[in-house]
Amino acid sequence: MTVLLEKKYIPLANYFAGATNSSIKLTFSEIEQIMGQNLPNAAYLNKSWWKKVKAPAKHFHAWLDAGYYVSNVEPDRFVVFERIDASTGNGIDDDDDDQDILLIRTAEHGDARTLAALQKLVESESDFMLYAKDERTQSTQKVRKQIIEWKQSGHSVIIVAILNGQHVGFLTIMGNDAKRAAHRATIDLGLQKDAQGKGIAQSLLKKAEEWARAKEITRLEVTVVEENEAARKLYEKTGFHSEGIREKSMMIDDKPHNELYLTKFLN
Question: Any idea where the N-acetyltransferase domain is (predicted)?
């Protein structure tokens, strides 16, 4: 990145930095999901805001520094970004248009509405989450408050996975205020079904470990329903090991189920 971007455009820059597609079409809503914040009014009102490539504007570096330019804008609908051929300065026409673009970042308060809906969706699709379908009363305001409070606490955070401009997964890290337990944190991971099998869960866990290490957290803990073989294999593959069984700790369809205690040490 050649210039110091405003903080809110950094996730957008990271998104384009990880892209290889020759053409990327994003709705205004998807762009705001990537950023975790709203676009300025000028972005909605003027095509020229997207076409700027000179100072004092800086926002365009989010895509230009990754080799993209804006080829088309439909105000309040979508923006089309084309990859630049360094040898000709023109757009590239190749077969990379169907490549997935994944962005993993910490949640911002602007993610609250989408995150609340995502949590509800994931819980409705899974048989093994703590909350069953439609059981959790999760409002946008409640999620926004949690995001803000956790960021201020410094020991807890929500990490989101954004695939092709859409929120598809989340991972929460819940730490501790007490000094004696400040080195440990509990994690919870959720991923919608149609985004599974793409390595997104592993990417969320990798980001979680990076964040935890930066906060001097050395022990991550998670519980998994014993029958949830896919989740158990995921955690074991990424270095977690079992510390025991939490017997009859979950009631699913009125039947008791055990949970496995899994732990990973980061030091």
Answer: 102-267
The helix (H) or strand (E) run that includes residue 219 is strand 219-225
Residues 78 and 107 grouped into a single domain: no
Q: Is the dihedral of CA 195, 196, 197, 198 positive or negative?
A: positive
**Bridge partners (DSSP) listed for residue 102:** 163
Instruction: Find the farthest-apart pair of alpha carbons in the chain and give their distance in angstroms, rounded.
Output: 65
117 and 249 share a domain? yes
* Residue whose tokens read 């990537």: 34
Structure tokens at 234: 């995921």
Tens-place pLDDT, residues 129-140 = 999 998 988 899
Pairing between β-strand 184-191 and β-strand 166-174 as defined by DSSP bridges: antiparallel
Encoded amino acid at 185, one letter: A
Same domain as 242, residue 122: yes
Range of the domain at 43: 7-83
pLDDT tens-digit readout, 87-144: 555 555 554 556 899 999 999 999 999 999 999 999 999 999 999 998 988 899 999 9
CA dist 136 and 132 (Å) reads 7
H helix count then E strand count, the chain: 9, 10
Count Cβ neighbours within 10 Å for each residue of 156-167 and write b for 16 or more, e otherwise: bbbbbbbbbbbb
